User: What shape does this take?
Amino acid sequence: MTEDHELVQRLREGDEAAFVELIDRYGTTMLRVAQMYVRDRATAEEVVQETWLAVLNGIDRFEERSSLKTWLFRILTNRAKTRGQRDGRMVPFSSLAGHGEEGDEPSVDPDRFLGPDSSHPGAWAAPPVGWPEERLLEREALTVIEMAIDQLPEAQREVILLRDVDGWTPLEVSDVLGITDGNQRVLLHRARSKVRAALERYMDPEIAGVTR
Amino acid sequence: MRLFVGEMPCQELVELVTAYFEGALSRRDRRRFEAHIRDCDHCTTYVEQMRETIEATGHLTEDDIEPEVRDELLAVFQGWSESREG
Assistant: This one.
């Protein structure tokens, strides 16, 4: 993969191939992130176009104090936010930590642990069973993961996609989405826990079905 | 296994796995976490499954950008490129 720094240089020289590489690298993620803030898909596409124009117009002045990616996505979220507010859309991530769908959710069904009156409160009653490695590599396992991610609340879905699919760092995620490091971690943990539970149901319906 | 004062129950451990992976636990909690998995096969399995989940999720790929969207962006670039030369 070409380094961002080199792509910045080539963009300055008007190299279309560098531009193509960048939109292939970030385009899908940009659209999805924009879509969280605005009303519909068409508006998200407009925001992405405006963002690229702003990036191109600013490329000569870009001092590379942040990475190209972070700069690009900051411009994107700023524009998407402004646009979403103008259209009267609720800002995502505004009601994190503690309420509604983002509220307290146990990572594992509480019924799988021994209760407070037992000899070992909080110890496993229905413990997890190791997964055969080859089954994780099956195409179906990936489909299970994809479906589980699709069903997540929006903020959790976005964070797990950025972190675990796109490989962003915690800092990049909290910076671009404008949330604290702790918030991104809580969202990520909930997302991962649900994906793990979905995989467990797929691997071993009996175990996971104990309380379902 | 018996639980002593300060020990971490399994049910608490499962809430802290991501924080543990990210090095975000306090020193005390990290020690409690590590002491627990040393003695608890079930939680060792659980933590392993979280690692496997992350690893498998990493095999997903983003969809390619749609051709129409790509073409529109290319038009943005070409417009910019021409205005720069002109």
Observations:
- Chain A touches chain B through 56 residues (CB under 8 Å).
- Chain A is about 60% helix and 0% strand.
